[in-house]
């Protein structure tokens, strides 16, 4: 099977046993016949082997207590840079096994996970000092497989991001992809029987072509994080067709450090550099700098007010609840619903607009009534925004997310709410809250009455006043704080 040409069999055996014993092996290679299973019950990760600098490691990475991902991590921070199986985790168990016989294969009989590189003919597995994991065949000049071609949510410096790839946020809700002349962030809608809509573009960066222009017919563009501190787009030349500068652009101490961009669970694309002095990652770039321009900062049918006064609901009668939003959230469209206009109710609100309206199509209509009419008659329309000054009518043919509060009263919003959903949150929650409060009052009343009777009997008075002070609900504070934290992470 293996050809021990440059290593004596004894040495090879020693190497293999060392590697299988999960000692942090100095050698950045693995040969055919390698096999390993997790050993520790508690370790956050188990290194299989590291790159020549020791900065990066291919390892078993513990996820959610007792699950396992095969990962390339940055050792000093445990920051995962690549995961083999981000959506289908294995169990952290001695039956889970990683083996290399030309194919790198992770199998877990418990969860039926079988992940493999599906390659043939590989003889060496190598971790480069760029964090790229490669499978090589001695006879071939180029690697037959590399982790750089299968990014998860992270793109490290010098990794080529092509039109065939996508980054996906850890929660699976958002993705980054390239178009002909742009890069875009998309919200993924769950595949749904009624939905023809797969993805919604919510952020777009079109190549500025300042240093180099796109040559038609010369092949697709690609993107790369450049060590000098920018996210570049390229086509045929080494000169970029577009440059998105990081804060550390061409600054000496940071430019020489390691950089990556990551698609975050809130749908933002952020860049970081490694500060070895502080042993921490420093935020260096954000595609979206205004919180209200993120895809769902206040949930469905939420209203986000730029400048930080927080989240509310498009419908004044509904109170914004953190983590829940306003109306649960819809998907699909209204086309399969019973015909007759009974399937939805309507909310109107002025001074609001879709956060990325320039990416929505618009038509010109003489009045807001005509604009609403276009939406009302079309079951794939969820809402419309009419600009009473320009006459532009923006049609939202996707489920309503968070609107941005512009405060400009000539912007007139019209939104459909699926009947079942408005009912659920408003009536259901209200009734629930009222019943809960009443039951609570009865209980507290009974308790107070009983205590008072006891204290009276014991002759202890004047303590009730202090008790009453502790009643304000923590709910509002929680909401405010959680919004504040979103906001802070959205600002620099
Ligand atoms: C890699 O290792 C070198 C030497 O230990 C260190 O100076 C550098 O900061 C490390 N880089 C990262 C990204 O950890
Ligand atoms: C490697 O192992 C897998 C699973 O045991 C097997 O299906 C595959 O054929 C093997 N490949 C080679 C080249 O031996
Ligand atoms: C990484 O490896 C390449 C060649 O394999 C070498 O030129 C480069 O200096 C190395 N970088 C670091 C930081 O070790
Ligand atoms: C990225 O693409 C450039 C230009 O095609 C190429 O020279 C370079 O080797 C590629 N890098 C990797 C890591 O594949
Ligand atoms: C780390 O500290 C050294 C010495 O104080 C300094 O020269 C260097 O610029 C610092 N690096 C970063 C990334 O801040
Ligand atoms: C909600 O309240 C705002 C400000 O008080 C008001 O301008 C708006 O018309 C109200 N909207 C609805 C739907 O009641
Ligand atoms: C309904 O809206 C969709 C999306 O905006 C559009 O493609 C379609 O043509 C519209 N249908 C009609 C009948 O206007
Ligand atoms: C829209 O503009 C027209 C003409 O300027 C005005 O008469 C009308 O009241 C406005 N409508 C709203 C809802 O602001």
From TrEMBL:
Matches recorded under SMART domains: B_lectin, PAN_AP
InterPro entries noted in UniProt: Bulb-type_lectin_dom (IPR001480), Bulb-type_lectin_dom_sf (IPR036426), G-type_lectin_kinases/EP1-like (IPR051343), Pan_app (IPR003609), S_locus_glycoprot_dom (IPR000858), SLSG/EP1 (IPR035446)
Keyword list, A-Z: Disulfide bond, Glycoprotein, Membrane, Signal, Transmembrane, Transmembrane helix
Keyword Nucleotide-binding: no
Transmembrane feature ranges: 427-449
All residue ranges annotated as the Apple domain in the record: 335-419
PROSITE patterns listed in its UniProt record: BULB_LECTIN (PS50927), PAN (PS50948)
Biological process (GO), any one: recognition of pollen
One Pfam short name: S_locus_glycop
Secretion signal, residue range per the UniProt entry: 1-21
Sequence ranges assigned to domain Bulb-type lectin in this UniProt record: 34-148
Purpose of the protein: Involved in sporophytic self-incompatibility system (the inability of flowering plants to achieve self-fertilization).
Name of this chain's protein: Apple domain-containing protein
């Amino acid at each position: 099977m293996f050809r021990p040409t440059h290593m004596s069999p004894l040495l090879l055996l020693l190497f293999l046993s060392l590697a299988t014993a999960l000692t942090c092996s100095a050698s950045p290679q693995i040969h055919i016949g390698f096999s390993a299973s997790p050993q520790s019950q508690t370790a956050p990760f188990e290194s299989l082997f590291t790159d020549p600098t020791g900065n990066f490691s291919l390892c078993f990475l513990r996820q959610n207590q007792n699950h396992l991902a095969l990962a390339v991590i940055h050792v000093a921070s445990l920051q995962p840079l690549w995961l083999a199986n981000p959506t289908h985790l294995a169990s952290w168990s001695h039956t889970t096994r990683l083996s290399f016989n030309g194919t790198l294969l992770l199998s877990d009989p418990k969860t039926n996970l079988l992940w493999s590189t599906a390659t043939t003919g590989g003889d060496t597995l190598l971790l480069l000092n760029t964090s790229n994991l490669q499978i090589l065949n001695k006879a071939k000049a180029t690697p037959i497989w590399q982790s750089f071609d299968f990014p998860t949510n992270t793109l490290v410096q010098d990794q080529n991001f092509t039109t065939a790839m996508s980054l996906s946020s850890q929660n699976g809700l958002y993705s980054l992809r390239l178009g002909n002349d742009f890069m875009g962030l998309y919200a993924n809608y769950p595949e749904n029987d009624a939905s023809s809509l797969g993805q919604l573009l919510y952020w777009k960066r079109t190549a500025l072509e300042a240093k180099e222009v796109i040559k038609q017919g010369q092949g697709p563009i690609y993107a790369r994080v450049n060590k000098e501190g920018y996210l570049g787009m390229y086509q045929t030349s080494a000169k970029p067709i577009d440059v998105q500068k990081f804060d550390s652009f061409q600054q000496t101490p940071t430019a020489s450090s390691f950089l990556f961009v990551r698609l975050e669970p809130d749908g933002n694309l952020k860049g970081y550099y490694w500060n070895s002095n502080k042993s921490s990652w420093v935020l260096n770039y954000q595609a979206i700098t205004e919180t209200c321009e993120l895809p769902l900062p206040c949930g469905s049918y939420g209203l986000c007010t730029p400048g930080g006064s927080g989240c509310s609901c498009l419908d004044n009668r509904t109170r914004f609840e953190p983590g829940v939003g306003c109306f649960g959230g819809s998907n699909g469209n209204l086309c399969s619903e019973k015909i007759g206009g009974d399937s939805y109710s309507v909310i109107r609100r002025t001074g609001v607009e879709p956060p990325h309206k320039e990416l929505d199509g618009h038509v010109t209509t003489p009045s807001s009534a005509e604009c609403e009419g276009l939406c009302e008659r079309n079951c794939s329309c969820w809402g419309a925004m009419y600009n009473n000054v320009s006459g532009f009518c923006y049609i939202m043919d996707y489920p309503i997310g968070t609107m941005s509060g512009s405060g400009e009263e000539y912007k007139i919003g019209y939104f459909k709410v699926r009947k079942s959903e408005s009912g659920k949150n408003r009536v259901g929650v209200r009734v629930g809250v009222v019943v809960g409060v009443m039951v609570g009052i009865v209980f507290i009343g009974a308790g107070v009455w009983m205590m008072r009777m006891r204290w009276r009997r014991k002759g202890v008075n004047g303590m009730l006043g202090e008790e009453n002070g502790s009643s304000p609900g923590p709910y509002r504070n929680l909401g405010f704080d959680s919004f504040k934290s979103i906001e802070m992470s959205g600002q620099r």
